[in-house]
Amino acid sequence: MDTLFAEFVEKSLVMLLPLGIFVLILAAGYVLRRYLLVRLSRWARRTDSPVGDVILSAVRTPFLVLCAMLGIYVALEFSDIPKAFVDRADKGLSILAVFAVALVTANILTGFARIRAERIESVLPVTSLTENIIRIVVYGVGTLVVLHKIGISIVPILATLGVGGLAVALALKDTLSNFFAGFHIVATRQIRVGDYLKLSSAEEGYVNDISWRTTKIRTLSGNLVLVPNAKLTELIVTNYTLPEKDMAVPVDLGVHYDSDLAKVEQVTCEVAAEVMKEVPGGVPEFTPFIRYHTLGAFSIDFSVILRGREFVDQYLIKHEFIKRIHERFAKEGIVIPYPIRALNYEQEKRG
After folding, report:
1. At 284, phi and psi to the nearest 5?
2. CATH number, position 286
3. Percent of the chain with pLDDT strictly greater than 70
4. Comparing C-alpha atoms, which of 92, 126, 112 is closest to residue 49?
5. pLDDT at 164
6. What is the CB neighbour count within 10 angstroms for residue 199?
7. Fewest beta carbons less than 10 Å away: which of 1, 195, 288, 335?
8. What domain count does the chain have?
9. Helix, strand or coil for residue 307?
């Protein structure tokens, strides 16, 4: 009886020991994760740095997965499962660990690249295209490591890819054309996410994203226009954000021939200066001015030059300026004439 009990206890220990090791490692990983996340959160709040947030979001879930995989690996080593099965399981766990590390690395690198691009204007901007390139490179390296671990030589694979590359390039000619055009757009920085564009094909709006195939433009009405990257490089594009974001806002007006032009200029500039200082989107430090340019059929025409911080600000600036200038002209007795047409009835009678 004692012998049977001893054997039962021994078998129970053999079965429970791997499970206990797994639970212990998983619990230790959970505690360590909480400790590290708390320290990283405090550091991020103290330094007001986005780097901590990037690391937190990248390691929050994969850390527990890696701990669980480590627990399974150690538990298998202490179990009485056949060695061949343990070896296969260890190889599978190592492959999963490589992909988990690749996932964390890709998330951290894309986060760091985005932070770097926001801080330094001259570096490559981060769009979905550049993020995908970073992920492809990291996952590609991870795949090569996995192939090496399972004993597959990568030299024949690279040779096969080289031979089949021409056929793939011909089959995916349009896709590759859009991909390289998108990379060219991102690298030259002549079109960036957030810029306001007007295309020669009449589409206009803010650049929402530059992906591997299309550039997404969000119009002022809220619709999304998808322009193939290769097509975009062929169009004439007006970028209202470059070289500077603020832009001139011209407004055309006309006054009666009997008007005092010096007074018209003074009153108009006063109203325009008020608009610049009081209307959201105006440039307060800019001094508006007018330029007379045409002796028209029924008025002396001129342009008022104001300035807005970005493209869409011009609409509110024009709206407020026209309201205020109409009211001020009425108070000052400055006439904005209606179109006048003279009819010669005598000439009509004589044919």
Report:
1. -60, -35
2. 3.30.70.100
3. 62
4. 112
5. 56
6. 18
7. 1
8. 3
9. strand
